[in-house]
Design a protein that fits this description.
The protein has one domain: Peptide Deformylase (Alpha-Beta Complex), CATH 3.90.45.10. Strand 6 and strand 7 form a beta hairpin. The protein has about 190 residues and is α+β, with helices and mostly antiparallel strands. The chain contains 4 helices and 7 strands; from the N terminus they run αβββββββααα. A 5-stranded antiparallel beta sheet has the order 1-2-3-6-7. A two-stranded antiparallel sheet has the order 4-5. The structure holds cobalt (II) ion. The site of cobalt (II) ion has 5 residues, from helix 2.
Length: about 190
């Protein structure tokens, strides 16, 4: 497992609900936390490790010792959004790219945890921002899609660099072609059903 970078097709995939919480899923989640901590992130969606499932993890402290701050969101739904806030965001799939993004200030989200227990949370500030960012991933939406036209123009050169590096890695065979990646994602979707 590794974190994939833009424009990997998994990042544009509308993910599939999880139907079974088993040891395999718990292992996936553990591995995702390890990768997130290694990359010094506070959130990671399954798409970002090439898995087309509706799942993301959070630890707003980014500290692996703060295990009680680890949260797993399975099949999350944002039920309510209120207000508006703007702050800087980044993404482990677009390393070192940061830009202000406008988001709802407060959200109410429902999801299941790794024990299969449903929960509902109302959060604001960083938690709200992180959950909106990660939920977007599950629909194949990236924070760069949420920028104003001016913001999009500002980040365009960096986004183009990510694109050309990715295509180079495909040309040299380090990364499979898009069609092969999509076929593999489709396989994983079928396996889930
Ligand atoms: Co992200």
């Amino acid at each position: 497992m590794q974190i994939v970078h833009y424009p990997h097709p998994a990042l544009r995939w509308k993910s599939t609900p999880i139907t079974k919480i088993d040891q395999e899923l718990r292992d996936i989640v553990r591995e995702m936390f390890e990768l997130m901590y290694a990359a010094e992130g506070i959130g990671l969606a399954a798409n970002q490790v090439g898995l087309p499932y509706r799942l993301f993890i959070l630890n707003l402290t980014a500290d692996p010792n703060e295990k009680d701050q680890e949260h797993v969101f399975i099949n999350p739904e944002i039920l309510k959004k209120k207000g508006s806030q703007e702050a800087e965001e980044g993404c482990l799939s677009l390393p070192k790219l940061y830009h202000n993004v406008r988001r709802a200030e407060e959200i109410t989200v429902e999801a299941f945890d790794l024990d299969g227990t449903g929960f509902e949370l109302t959060v604001d500030e960083l938690g709200s921002r992180a959950i909106q960012h990660e939920s977007d991933h599950l629909d194949g939406v990236l924070f760069i899609d949420r920028l104003s036209d001016a913001g999009q123009r500002e980040v365009a050169p960096i986004v183009a660099d990510f694109e050309s590096l990715f295509r180079q890695n495909q040309a040299s065979g380090v990364i499979p072609p898009d069609e092969a990646i999509k076929a593999q994602l489709q396989q994983l979707v079928l396996k889930q059903k």
